[in-house]
Amino acid sequence: MLRIAVPNKGSLSEPASAMLHEAGYRQRKDRRELVLVDAENEVEFFFLRPRDIAVYVGSGKLDIGITGRDLLLDSGSPAEEILQLGFAGSTFRYATRPGTAKDVSEFGGMTVATSFSGLVTQHLAENGVDASVVHLDGAVETAIQLGVAEIIADVVETGTTLRNAGLEIIGEPILKSEAVVIRGTGAPDDDPKVRQFLRRMQGVLVARRYVMMDYDIRVEHVEKAVALTPGLESPTVSPLHHEGWVAVRSMVPSKDAQRIMDELYDLGARAILTTGIHACRL
Fold first, then answer.
1. What does it catalyze (predicted)?
2. Alpha-carbon gap, residue 41 to 273, rounded angstroms
3. How confident is the model at residue 279 (pLDDT cuts 50, 70, 90)?
4. Edge-to-edge, what's the strand order for the sheet holding 43-48?
5. Integer-rounded Cα radius of gyration of the chain
């Protein structure tokens, strides 16, 4: 069986399980369940702490896993990302009191507090900065107030928490993270079970981003209409019973669907319909 690590809690857990369910895999009904066998799909799921997943996958104990890019890089584990999943996005940045420093190049001799000590240590080394790193498990913004560090490095969403603590964001982002599928470095590329899993997950990603659009339009306007709805390869165009009219079917980005419908209507298209896509293979 394919052995897959899945986050058991936190911001990664629910979206990961939802995506796996959409991909046709069984998911646990009880949060206390740590191992789930999906015999029909020949998969065994292990529900683990998100921070531990890269370690298990990198050691070869599990075949693949779902975790955050930040957690993967912070672990230093011999694992690599093989698919971006598009959820749990975050930006990792430095912050400090106004006037302390303007850029990472000015951190020399200072102390940086963070929950991602591996990631920060690597980033400082890449920038040639000799600074100390203190590992904290959470609430790092208080480290400066308590005199533990002059700089902090943390996940930033709106920046409100930092501003409330009297801190400002400095420098360029350390990392932009999201949920990713990972495998051990050096794992074979041709594992058929892994390829099947990735196809299913990619199918979910496409199904979430696209809708199927159908419409009727006169033959003389087909080329302009098709330019608006080119599809992934080419739209399907079928003649209708009424001469001079055709039916067109194409996948379009869901975020653009309303605008495209308006433009098609202005071209003379009628009976314009959109339907959701539940699954697909490209």
1. 1-(5-phospho-beta-D-ribosyl)-ATP + diphosphate = 5-phospho-alpha-D-ribose 1-diphosphate + ATP
2. 34
3. confident
4. 35-38, 43-48, 2-7, 64-68, 179-184, 79-84
5. 24
